[in-house]
Amino acid sequence: MNTKELDKKYIAGTYSRADVVFVSGKGAKLYDENGREYIDLGAGIAVNVFGCADEQWINAVTKQLHKLQHISNLYYTEPCVKLAELLCEKTGMKKVFFGNSGAEANECAIKVCRKWAYDKYGDYSHSNIITLKNSFHGRTITTLAATGQDSFHTMFGPFTEGFVYASAQDPGEARALAEKGNCCAIMIELVQGEGGVIKLSQEYVNELVNIAKEHNLLIVVDEVQTGNGRTGTLYAYMQYGFMPDVVTTAKGLGGGLPLGACMLGEKVKDTLTPGSHGSTFGGNPVSCAGAISIISRLDDKLLSQVTEKADYILSQLNGTPGLKSISGLGLMIGLDCEKSSGEIAAELLKRGVIVLTAHEKVRLVPPLNITMEELEKAVSVIKEVINP
Ligand SMILES: *Cc1c(COP(=O)(O)O)cnc(C)c1O
Q1: Co-location of 339 and 254 in the same domain
Q2: What does the pLDDT read at residue 117?
Q3: Distance of CA 121 to CAs 183, 214, 272, Å?
Q4: Is the separation of the CB atoms in 39 and 29 below 8 Å?
Q5: Which of 88, 108, 243, 269 is surrounded by the most beta carbons within 10 Å?
Q6: What would the mean pLDDT of 172-200 be, rounded to a whole number?
Q7: Global confidence as pTM
């Protein structure tokens, strides 16, 4: 049996995969089992920050692999503390909990908010967390509950209680929920990725920050997708002019190895205590060594290139027949087209360009080091394909 047949027989049926078996890559180029070349604007769902086979990342990872691949959190190791120091220095956050995925980072954030409220009020009177309609926070039972889309709230009930949902446009809904006096936090994505690459407006975020201040709520920013240089700053909140209490990230953080982080600000830096949370693999030395190589290279020069590349894509696509609108921030771009996003993605794949979809949008999240030549080529194919 070939790979596709084995997959059908032995892999749990959760994915409807695109019809291609990838075997290797270099930067933003991917190669399938027949040696065919593709330009990658998906980066393994916004994960491969420096594309495939990035020399510096490989060196960092293999150097650590030869020394110690895992030892658990019963002991000290250097890569995770160095990465935590780097993240805190670059963000102003104070402490970090490491897990292995976005959902795990968000689970940690939710536990931190709940415990912060429990410590403060001595009971569960403020255990509710406001999340936004159309958000996405993960696939565990609790992060599904946190996700503000009804379609995720079926089949697996009962779900974790204590999430209430507010409009991502009208701050009045979040205010009304906060006024009930039973909430401890507001949890948001600044660009709703899976929900359709929809950016929250500055005015709306300003209002949420005010509501949080007035009602003593923590602000959790889920930067699982927007983080790690994706939007043109190291984290997207840096463009909105406020300091979150908790920032979660994953996807791009490990550059392709599983790694999630829940970063804790001043108010909650000591909320987690021995025994209150943990993870066997969290802060794995190999993943962390790779992440140090990624995060330390996301400097001003590279981030300004992210913005330049995004501007290039927007300027090229603007006014293309068949394109209704463009949304997003930095190299996290949503295209609302007349043709369906699924149809466009399938046609692009046939023509050697990999894109993602998010609901009705075509989603572009290329490796941040994609070359201008690769971008030019990919964009010209996209223009042809979205033209009805
Ligand atoms: C992908 C994603 C998650 C879930 O991350 P996993 O690593 O798949 O658990 C959570 N939040 C956001 C915003 C995401 O984009």
Answers
A1: no
A2: 98
A3: 11, 17, 16
A4: yes
A5: 108
A6: 98
A7: 0.98
What dihedral do alpha carbons 173, 175, 181, 185 form, nearest 10°?
A: 90
Protein residue whose Cα sits closest to atom 5 of ligand 1 = 102
Q: What percent of the chain has pLDDT over 70?
A: 100
The answer on 309 and 283 residing in a single domain is no
Q: Which domain holds residue 285?
A: 57-297
Number of domains in the chain: 2
Q: Are residues 226 and 341 in the same domain?
A: no
Residues 155 and 266 in one domain: yes
Six token digits for residue 40: 């990658």
151 and 200 in a single domain? The answer is yes
Give the atom of ligand 1 at the shortest distance from the alpha carbon of 225: 15
Kindly tell me the burial class for residue 305, based on how many C-beta atoms sit within 10 Å of its own C-beta (0-12, 13-18, 19 or more): middle
Which pLDDT score, from 0 to 100, does residue 72 have? 97
Both tokens assigned to 336: 């609302």
Q: pLDDT tens for residues 107-155?
A: 999 999 999 999 999 999 999 999 999 999 999 999 999 999 999 999 9
The pLDDT confidence band at residue 176, using thresholds 50, 70 and 90, is very high
CATH code for position 334: 3.90.1150.10
* Ligand 1 and 248: CB distance under 6 A: no
Specify the ligand 1 atom closest to the Cα of 139.
Answer: 9
Confidence of residue 264 (pLDDT cuts 50, 70, 90): very high
Query: Is the C-beta atom of 83 inside 6 A of ligand 1?
Result: no
In the prediction, which pLDDT does 175 show?
98
325 and 209, same domain (yes or no): no
**Integer CA distances (angstroms), 317 to 107, 303, 322, 374, in order:** 38, 21, 10, 15
Separation between Cα atoms, residue 147 and residue 12, nearest integer Å: 23
Quick one: CA dihedral 73, 78, 81, 84, positive or negative? negative
